[in-house]
Write a structure and sequence with these properties.
single chain; 95 residues; 5 helices; 68% helix; 0% strand; rod-shaped
Length: 95
Amino acid sequence: MRTMIALFISAAFLLGTTGAAVAQSTTPAPAQEKKTEEKATEKKPATKAMSMEEKKAACLEKAGSDEAKKANCEKKFVAKPKTGKTMTEKREEKK
């Protein structure tokens, strides 16, 4: 009876260690390599810079029906007149 119990315990130990060794082994994923190759060869389309009108339109579109947000967009994208003054002339005016 003791030999049967010892045999059963040793078989369970053997299966447990074998299962743990199999679970730790890793296999390379070939699908992952294909994705990296595709990303490297794939070209992204060139993005162009948005003009001030486009930025203002996008801001107003995001604002929706909120008047405060629309007013903020209007302030942000108002065309600023050029005075033609240099930085030193502006500093002298402030004094």
